[in-house]
Amino acid sequence: MPGAPGVSTFYTGAAPLAADLTAIRTFFNALAAGLPNTLTITVQGLGDIVDDSNGALVGSWTQTAPATVLGTSASGYASPVGSLVHWLTGAVVDGRRLRGTTYIVPTVNNYDANGTLLGAWVTTLTTAANAMFVSLGSNLVIWHRPKFGPKPVGGGPRPIIRTGSSSGATGVFVPDKSVVLRSRRD
Fold it and tell me: pTM for the whole thing?
């Protein structure tokens, strides 16, 4: 489909266990009826460990990957249009509430006549996100990237203006609105 492949990145406070990856798979699997049957979602069994403060890779982890998720709807869809989940935290960074976002794009048959999301889809998405949030518990974190300054004249690494940080997720919110996910491939 246009714009594919896509990626959703989830951060954890510690290397995820097989049960954590299964919780992410279960989240996407709960949405399968609202996803096109041309869509395959794979939860990878490997990932990087990132230093919160500077974004440097400091290691990696491996785990048994769960089975893939297949969308089940044969209906037509608009490829860049879907919905999203906000992962909430109690942290404030640079004067703004830190939150993560997972885009669920594309989705199928989930829209009201006015272009917003069907109430049933908002409920399905909220229920699935809450289940994942509860399963992952304090291991689900939202990472805020560090802010770097310009490269110094004469070379060398860019200075860090604000260190990165992470905070544990405290809840989920699914807004009743359609979203468009754009990429450089559009």
Answer: 0.92
Q: Is 185 among the domain residues?
A: no
Kindly provide the b/e burial profile for residues 116-153, where b requires at least 16 CB atoms within 10 angstroms of the residue's own CB.
bbbeebbebbeebbeebbebbeebbbbbbebeeeeeee
Cβ atoms of 111 and 18 within 8 Å: the answer is no
Residue 140: phi and psi, rounded to 5, are: -80, 115
Domain with 157 in it: 11-179
Evaluate whether 157 touches 146 at the Cβ level (below 8 Å).
Answer: no
In a domain, 4, yes or no: no
Pairing of strands 46-50, 57-62: antiparallel
Mean pLDDT of the chain: 93
